[in-house]
Hints:
- The protein has helices spanning 16-28, 41-52, 96-111, 126-137, 150-164, 197-204, 209-220, 222-230, 235-249, 294-313, and strands at 8-12, 33-37, 63-66, 77-80, 118-121, 144-146, 171-172, 175-176, 184-185, 191-192, 195-196, 254-263, 269-280, 283-287.
- It is of the alpha/beta class and 316 residues long.
- The protein has two domains: 8-146, NAD(P)-binding Rossmann-like Domain (Rossmann fold), CATH 3.40.50; 150-313, L-2-Hydroxyisocaproate Dehydrogenase, Chain A, domain 2.
- The strands form four sheets. It has a six-stranded parallel β-sheet with strand order 3-2-1-4-5-6, with helices on both faces. A three-stranded antiparallel β-sheet has the order 7-10-11.
- The radius of gyration is 19 Å and the shape is globular.
Amino acid sequence: MHEEKIKRVAIIGTGAVGCSYAYSMINQGVAEELVLIDVNDAKAEGEAMDLNHGMPFAPSPVKVWNGNYSDCEKADLVVITAGLAQKPGETRLELVEKNTKIFKQIVQSIMASHFNGIFLVATNPVDILTYVTWKESGLPKERVIGSGTVLDSARLRFAIGQYLNVDTRNVHAAIIGEHGDTELPVWSHVTIGIEPLETVLEKRNDCNQECLEEIFISVRDAAYQIIGRKGATFYGIGMSLVRITKAILNNENSILTVSVHLNGEYGHRDIYIGVPAVINRNGIRELIEIDLNQKEQEQFNYSVAVLKETMNSIGY
């Protein structure tokens, strides 16, 4: 009898991000199986119980349970949200040493299960930890993806939509680079519907470069603002991870700004960083190399330099 293919996603870490992701996955009916894995087994079990109690109201049935690393063997996707969280006043990069150690153990444990799917990494600093995952797993670079600047780009789209009073889904904009303080907005390619942002602003005559910079700063520092108020960010990243998951499991060939491995694109090699990429059932189908203006390219180069310096400090 032919065994029917089941879409299974394993979530490593049942903190606020992992659980927001699981909750969104169930509400959007994306996978058929969700396995929750956490060093605190009782916490994972409690979360699975709680999620299961909402199943009568889900759009489609999902089998949810707390498991262990052996459950990763048949997973299509392993999403890592485990690790230490960013504390108030702490930068994402300051987390790097602590979380690199944790990640080595996690990835080795997952690979011991004979996992042969796709990794999606959300833990910060995400670009560096995605690189660590790639190195430790031995999987092809196309199958190791970081959440990158998907959330940052969403925040930018939301802010521009608010400013122009336009549906955020019709704002096409990207933030690229490190998911952190050196990220940059690609203003030269922002469109509202199919109209360039520059044209829209000229018609309105009420927003200059200074105004755009204010919008970007509010986006770049959004995590700090949220952490200062409620201690952590998790709904936005949870929904961002679901968006990437849908692109993978539904073989969408969607374009999202994720953390991917550069091999000469944008003038850089051997680094994971946020750029637009086409995502499908095999992971990263291709990177999209957009034409940056001189200022944007210089900012991107700086972002790469900061990441490489941090990576060198931990021996990568």
